[in-house]
Amino acid sequence: MNIEIRNLSHAFGDFQALKDVSLDVHDGELLALLGPSGCGKTTLLRLLAGLARPDAGTIRIGGVEATGQSAQARQVGFVFQHYALFRHMSVFENIAFGLRVRRRNRPANAEIRQRVNALLELVKLDGFGNRMPSELSGGQRQRVALARALAVEPRVLLLDEPFGALDASVRRELRRWLRRLHDEINITSLFVTHDVEEAMEVAERVVVMDHGRIVQMGTPEEVYAQPATPFVCAFLGSVNRFPACPAAGDGTPELLTGPAACGAEGTAPLTLYARPHELLLERGTGTPGQTVPATILRVQAIGAVVHIELQRSDNGQRIEVELSRERQDEQTYKAGEAVHIRPTRFARF
Amino acid sequence: MNPFRPPIRPVPLLLTLVALLFLLGFLALPLAIVFAGALQQGIKHYLAAISDPMALAAIRLTLLAAAIAVPLNVIFGLAAAWAIGKFRFPGRQLLITLIDLPFSVSPVVSGMVYILVFGMQGWLGGWLAARGVQVIFAVPGIVLATLFVTLPLVARELIPLMESQGTEEEEAALTLGASGWQTFRRVTLPNVRQGLLYGVILCTARAMGEFGAVSVVSGHIRGLTNTLTLHVEILYNEYQSAAAFAVASLLALLAVVPLVVKAILSRHEH
């Protein structure tokens, strides 16, 4: 089912958590809401589930007006960061809960058993039905929570930082599994995360939020390659900032060094954003306007990528550079060496 | 024998001994003396004291007051704890303070308050008396006084429990299609049943053992408005100490029964 969100706003007292947010989630899509904590992503998810009421705006799920519907009527699966399993019920009863509380077309016990067992198999927990939640690991609990949400055959699935409480290796494994599971059952899914890597790896489309607004949406590749704002650029990964002067026409901007200002007519300087792997190091004299002088502080050569930390000689700014292993083997940069940094690609704002 | 049993260390041993000695001196010993006193003139005398019509009437009234106060407190306690533990609303702190009030006010004072409101010279007493309803020096007054002093017991047990459990499980139940009532009955209530049970036991014991507030509103009419505690006092003041001890031992037993029930139930749990 698709979700149409129009002009949604929500405030907690004086704090405007969500400001005029509009978004279309396509049928069968796996979408990530990405942003720093406090950006409004969880609020948006709770509004979609009916766990909070918007101050303004509308929500339509599968073409049907849902704004005023209660959480109970909305048929939306919700997975919580801290699992929220019913602690006094077995795994089996947790998953069966949504079926047992049905007033209309409640399945017979035999059918419930069959469906719960099928779900246990789906989340790779066959044979765990009689365990209590407290006897499971975090990753297992989250899979039970997912099975419980899926048991009622929800129209859409909402996941609030589903892997946030798990340790790194389990998290990586579980998100791949979620990706495969989504390919298998194809339910429209939204998940909230502040972990860029997670959003990029799992989602088909990423929505970046900041201060209650959507700042950019697109495929992970698009968002990473063409960040819409300096915030998105900096949020998605480490980035180095270079003050520069706009060039005449469409030419490459000229990097500024030292206290120099832009041209005589007082053009405003701009900032170039370059990621660590978009920088090259050069020995020799450098090219004014295209390189900046710097001293290497540290070379960390572990794994396929070599991290080099530098300090600009003109303004003391720290710069991070990533080189391929091959290039480092060839050039053998060392701490203390004076070099020139050349941005090869950059975003400008 | 467990070969890995940890060695006995002096500090825990000392602390345990101090606690045990304290319990023995201030709890077990007085209780034993009550029972010894009760039986000092023989079992026959003991049975006579507790099967006296006045004693039986006192037992009936005590049980009645408890039977009314405890269910009402459970309902109130659950409602108040749910509101305070799961929601944020204006006046929440005030409500918490008000719930604690019966603990901080002396029971005698709360009894006096009821006299002030429902007594013949009180705000409502005359109006009620004109309609044939007597509260003070009658059973309703005793029930009201008992309710007042036991009010915080269930709520106090449940509030911290519900607060610590948060609202996520309830929210999960709602998104799974459960109604408000189903959520309460299947999720909230089972999660607090231990605390609720404990609250009920404390409430029962206190309802049956209340003296001060009840003493003020009762009027000590034998066979009519005498509860067990008041009956003990009367017997004692009349120098019938063996009978007083006999009734007191009965009261002590009544308080122990719920505790035993709880111990059995919670053993069953695990």
- Derived from helix and strand composition plus strand pairing, the structural class of chain B reads mainly alpha
Name the assembly state: heterodimer
Helix count, DSSP H or I runs of 4 or more residues of chain B: 14
What can be said about the biggest beta sheet of chain B? Answer: none
Distance between the termini of chain B: 23 Å
| Main sheet strand line-up of chain A | 6-7-8-3-9-10
Q: What percent of residues of chain A are in strands?
A: 25-35%
How many beta-strand elements of chain A?
19
Mean pLDDT of chain B: 88
Q: Write the H/E string of chain B, N to C.
A: HHHHHHHHHHHHHH
Structural class of chain A: alpha+beta
Largest inter-chain contact set: A-B, 28 and 16 residues
In terms of per-residue confidence, which ranges of chain A show pLDDT below 50 for 5 or more consecutive residues?
Answer: none
Number of strands of chain B: 0
Termini separation of chain A (Å)? Answer: 38 Å
Low-confidence stretches of chain B: none
Rg over CA atoms of chain B? 23 Å
Helix content of chain A: 25-40%
- Bin the strand percentage of chain B: under 5%
User: What spatial form of chain B do the alpha-carbon principal axes imply?
Assistant: globular
